[in-house]
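Researcher: I'd like a structural prediction for the single chain below. Treat it as a standalone chain; there are no partners to consider.
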Amino acid sequence: MNFFSTIAPKSALVLIISVFSAISVSALTPVTVENQVTVSPEPVRSVVYDLVTVRLTDKSVLLDWNTVSEFNNSHFEVERSADRSNFKTVAVVLDGFETNGTGKRYAFKEDISVVKNNVAAYYRLKQIDIFGNITYSEVVKVQKALIAE
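Model: Treating it as a single chain, here is the predicted structure.
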């Protein structure tokens, strides 16, 4: 039995897995445990918002948002609610337009028929990073004024 033929392939496999695991962690912080240095993940906000707004036009509801910075952002889901509690995904937004080099501008538009007279609609953004972590934006409200017929 050859020592190198049975041990070397397993050692190489462990090394490859260890290197891959270290690279796939989004933010690394060294931690000392009993004179050994290990690496542990540190929470990082994937997206920093500048502004989230919603407004009505004659025919549409427009939701706009800007990011100041993005790190490992995958995409956004636009969610809507009639009661501010039960949100449903109404759109997926994959990418925005570059702004000043670090952030982006995004927009979503849907038909105004989703907003009934004098009934509010609430929107929020569900941001998903490349690792599957989820964060939510603030909730914004839009309301169509009661129109006498």
